[in-house]
Amino acid sequence: MKTRSLLKLSLIIAMIGIFIIVILADNLEPEIKNISIINEKMIDEWIKIKGNVTNQHNINGLTIFTIYDGTAGIRAIIYKDTQNFEGSEVIVLGKIIEYKNEIEIQIEKMQIVG
Amino acid sequence: MIEYILIAIFFGLIAGTITGLIPGIHINLIALMLFASSAFFLQFIDSFVLAIFIVSMAITHTFLDFIPSIFLGAPDEDTALSVLPGHKFLLKGKGFGAVRLTVIGSFFGLLIAIALAPFFIIILPFIYLFLKKGIAFILIIIVIFLILKEERQKRFLALFIFLLTGILGYSCLNFPLIKQPLFPLFTGLFGASLLTISIIKNVKLPKQKIKTIKIKKKNILEALGLSVISSSIVSFLPGIGSSQAAVISSGFKKINEKTFLILLGAINTMVMLLSFIALYSIEKPRTGIAVFLGRFLGIFSEQQLWFFIFVSLIVGSISVFITLALAKVFAREITKINYKKFCMIILIFLIILTPILSGWFSLIIFITAGSIGVVTSIIGIKKIHMMGCLILPVIIWYII
What we know:
The complex is a heterodimer. By secondary structure, chain A is of the alpha+beta class. Chain A has 1 helix and 5 strands; from the N terminus they run H-E-E-E-E-E. Chain A has one helix at 3-27; strands at residues 46-59, 62-68, 73-79, 89-99, 102-112. Chain B contains 17 helices and no strands. Chain B is globular and about 60 Å long. Chain B starts with a helix and ends with a helix.
């Protein structure tokens, strides 16, 4: 294969690939799971949960609260969003992380549903 | 207790050698498996012994992981930038010499990190607070500087590749259905692209000489000096690792390929050791391994930290010999096989491994990243611009 053809082909694949990845990353989400299934083995994985917000407090632009879904509760953090979610029912998409030996969810997307 | 510690060091050396040599088997995976089965082990041994195993494995890994990068073109996220200079030396029959340069870097980097450890323990909390605010701007300035260092007619292309890989990296890191997104991203950008070009160009490897590559003492000192600065900057910040440290170093001073390989070796090992110090000093894990260390021990004492540092020194010294011995084996054996077929086998191996480790969608990332890598190689701009895949997401994370 000539270098020029390889360059054109690679460039086309790269552009189409990035387009597909951007679309998929924005639209594909995991199914909603119970909080009770979350454990240490899932650290760094994405998860989607639905539950009620309690114990909200804000520290230096960081909002921390607990989400309960009837099976268990988990501490959640959200950056740079200090609005009040206390008592709301929410669906959140986030990454499972560990902070000071406790499992938390670092929220990337949140939707108030009730 | 001492016999358990020696056994932990021994198995750590073996595990680190295996994870270093086999692409896709990461130390974090072994640490996770150990953590999952820790209830069993803790019946017989103390959690401190398990922590020793983790430290031993992690330090060994930082020496060994340059071998697949240089000989196979199959890097991980910490060694990605060594692929191109390493491959150039491989094509000149100096693959062993290239690995030796990274070993020099790793070992002296380890010694310097140990010598500076007391200083880091005291100064770290202050550096951390200062850098947290300024890291995005440091990275932006360095990216601009690196683009301006390209020839005038290639600057736009360098910016284009930086942004393209940046968008790719940002999307991958925010793709909820992909596990370990860095694996397809880095093996695609730096490994698959090099293997594809080697296959298409029918590259033939010359006989490998088991010889050292001559380097001036001045260049070694230059690499070590830069590694201290950049490792100190990145080791304590979230989301930033060895590769970003290398990018920062490149921004400080123009260095040749030999110096760059020493620099990468030094940064790789220093960042790992400094992450143990960071865990103690600011109580924040900055590498996957530090996360597991924290899980096994919680907050540990300064005495335990010094013991980890001592173990790192022992393990690092042994790893020098293991790495050089294995690099000799690779250098002798690699020319006995058809290199084109060999590249095809490695490429197929990476294609099979990608969905196993990261899920089916990761194949799209692998192919896209590989294509960008091929474009970058053909248009002839530096591969360091492809580090946009990590630099841009970090800039966005710190600014927005």
